[in-house]
Amino acid sequence: MKKTPRFLLVLAPVLLALAFVSLPLTINAEEAPPEKKLTKSQEKFDADKDGKLNDEEKTAAKEAARAKAKETREENLAKYDANKDGKLDKEEREKMKADEQAQLDARKAERETKKAAKEAEKK
Known about the structure:
The chain is an all-alpha fold. Helix content is 72%, strand content 0%. It is built from four helices and no strands.
């Protein structure tokens, strides 16, 4: 009777284990990845309403974001550039950040007030 080579005795269990490990990976690879839903802001640019942004729609969204950023920068300069040098120095940026934080705090307080009122109605 012929003996089984030793490398086969070692290699066979390793290959079997590898097959069991890779099997779930190949099954998952065949499934289509779930499509991400567009955000509300992305939906504005989905011209063909297919739930995806094609290259033209992505370009339009990027251009709109750039335009909005430029508009915001100009508004901030007009509002906070006290010395009118065309840029915001440290004190001007701190003032802007303080105002933004105050707005965030006010919105948060408003949401909490609405939530408390809603909970009070339930009782």
